[in-house]
Amino acid sequence: MQQRKLLMPPFHGERMRAYGQLISDIAKQVISQWKISDVFKARSSMQEISLTVILRAVFGLKEGERYQEIRKTLTAMLDSFESPLSATLLFFKTLQHDLGPLSPWGNFVRQRELLDKLLYQEIRERRSQSESFGEDILSLLLSVRDEAGQPMTDVELRDELMTMLFAGHETTATALAWALYWVHYIPQVREKLLQELNSINVGSADPMEIARLPYLNAVCSETLRIYPVVFFALPRILQAPMQLMGYELPKGMLISACIYLTHHRPDIYPQPKQFKPERFLERQFSPYEYLPFGGGNRRCLGLAFAMFEMKLVLATILSQYSLELVEPRPLLPVRRGITFTPAGGVRLVVKERY
């Protein structure tokens, strides 16, 4: 709770407004490279956007040697668990053996050590700077003090940065890839969303105004409902025995809520296999019914930031480009590390704007 109290301010209020323009600018910069008839993988392009947002908004890093090194190392770490087979290393400690740099776990360990070195270098440099802190999240974390007046330690900062790097960009990139798939797989959804976006001038609108658009919010919410990026909430260990749906669960048992199964209960979400953003316009779901970011006192701190980024990137893309699915067919999720991404990455082709 103490950590959450220190970390909450950067993800809410006026701080979010400051990140809005940054997110939109980065999205425009990345998609400006697209040309008519280009075919690209949505997940790769969205990962480029989300990683740049994290490096700029969290670290305050711009182009430079360390920026490139962190980007390269993080991408290599994530790619090492791209296949469902390699992802099993994350779940079974018996497979986590360092058999040298060419072994899967050995390669991961060395990439992690390199990333740690880069993060600690950045933290030490920023601590030594005498000028005032910037707007980025690392600057804010360096400036916060707990109730005893103590700053966060280097190790605490490293842990928070590592969490934001991993949880904050891979997940958002995957969610955006799914959103682009559904918007272009169901023409009615695309048309309805374009009508709403055309009702404002996205290019000059206040990012907060874009984020408040109801159908855009519904599309993003339904995207995270039908295929949540992470299928299970992080596990809890029971501190005392409890009863659950007629079962007696003993103290010490590890339990985890399945987000995917909750989101596919027909009593909560009629026709759960259908992508229907309207369900989020018709009613509000409780935190026990809709939980793409987990729940309870460990719910993801970056929830507001992730949704904000998702809405702004999606609005920016759809207001500037016409896209079509290369293969307009049903897509299923596949495991990538601890996340579930659209199989094949969602291949889209850039068309003439109309």
Give descriptors for this structure.
mainly alpha; 14 helices; 354 residues; three-stranded antiparallel β-sheet; Cytochrome p450
Quick structural overview:
Helices cover 51% and strands 8% of the residues. With 354 residues, it is mainly alpha-helical.
Topology record:
Blueprint lengths: L1 H6 L6 H18 L7 E3 H16 L7 H15 L4 H4 L16 H25 L8 H7 L10 H32 L1 H12 L8 H5 L2 H13 L9 E2 L4 E3 L2 E3 L4 E2 L3 H5 L15 H4 L20 H18 L1 E4 L7 E4 L2 E4 L4 E5 L3
Antiparallel strand pairs: 1-9, 2-5, 3-4, 6-9, 7-8
Helix pairs in contact: 2-3, 2-14, 3-8, 4-6, 6-8, 8-9, 8-11, 8-14, 11-14
What does this structure look like?
- With 354 residues, this protein is mainly alpha-helical.
- It has a single domain (2-351), classed as Cytochrome P450 (Cytochrome p450).
- It is built from 14 helices and nine strands.
- The strands form four sheets. It has a three-stranded antiparallel beta sheet with strand order 1-9-6. A two-stranded antiparallel sheet has the order 2-5.
- Helix 8 (154-185) crosses helix 9 (187-198).
- The chain is globular, with a radius of gyration of 21 Å.
- The model has no long low-confidence stretch (mean pLDDT 87).
